[in-house]
Structure formats: C-alpha cells, structure tokens
Amino acid sequence: MRILFRILIFLGLFWPLGSLAVGVSVSPSSLDVLFPDIRESYLTVTNISAEPVMVQIELDHFQENIKTEPSEVKLLPEEATKIKLRIDFNGWPTGVENTYLSVVTRALNKKSFNAASGFKIPVTVNITKSYWRWSGAAVFLIVFGGLLIIALMIQVIFSLFKLRRKKKGWLGTNFIFYHRPFWLKLWHKLKK
C-alpha cells in the first residue's frame, strides 16, 4: 500500500498535465496623455490564448471623462483589435489626474475553466491650458487685412503729399481719382 501511495504521489507531482488559461496582451503598457492636445488614444488588445475570450475594459475613476469604445470585445485566438479612449477634461483646472484601466479576460467556452485573468494599465492625464490655435482662414484674413491696410495707407500718403504735375504727361500719383472721369464716362455709356 505504501508503494502504491508513493507511486501515486510521484505521478501526481511529475505527470505533465495540460492546463489552459485565458490571457491577452495589451500595448502600450501605460498611457500618458497631454490634454487638450491629445483627445483620443488607442490600445491594441491581442488574444494570446488558444480559445476565444471576452475582454472587458473599465476605468477605476473618471468614467464620465474617459470613454472606452468598445468596452467589451470578443476575440478569437491570435486576433487583435484597437480600443479607442476618448478623453474630455474640459472645465477642469490644470494638473495631473491618475487612474487605472482594468482589462479583464474571460473564456467564452462554458466548459473551460472559468477563472478570469486581468491586469491594470496606469493612465495619466496631464491637463494644461488650452490655447487658441491658428487656422488657415485666420492667417489668410490677417495677412489680407494687413496688406489692404498698407495699400490704403500708401494711397493716403500719396494723396496728402501730392506732387505738382509736370507739363509733359505727368498724370499725378492719385491713381484712383485720376482715372475717375474715364470710369464715369464708361459707366454712363453702359447705363444707356
């Protein structure tokens, strides 16, 4: 009996038994976000186990400010997907906010061992002041408006310091008012 008991203990300790566990790989391993410059961030979740799994992603804090899309994913073996995090801390004072993103994995097969595996990813949000950003339309309006003001100032300067006309063909420097009779004649002809 003792020999049989020793053999059973030896086989129980050293017999290679297969056990499968569910697991996922997530990259990056931590998130550092500079708000308001970065409003979206992505995680890549990969199923590294040999069976289909359900992955649930939840935040420990700031659920109303950081949204995960989607929050639940079904993954086949060796399948990867991207998880989008939308970050919105508008109206918050400047500072640093820390939380954890919980990633929990469960097997979809009801017959398999139903222990959930998971881990936490640290998320750091650095909130800074939002500055006004230059857009193409704003740059165009400022440049065009500046050039228009410079052109009008040149016209005013020429009209204030008008040079005397020379006898032979000097037409003056006030370009708008000099050609006025021509444009009025043309206007009256077109009116008729």
TrEMBL record:
The chain crosses the membrane at residues 138-161. Keywords: Membrane, Transmembrane, Transmembrane helix. It comes from the Bacteria. The keyword Membrane applies. This is Abnormal spindle-like microcephaly-associated protein ASH domain-containing protein. It comes from Candidatus Komeilibacteria bacterium CG11_big_fil_rev_8_21_14_0_20_36_20.
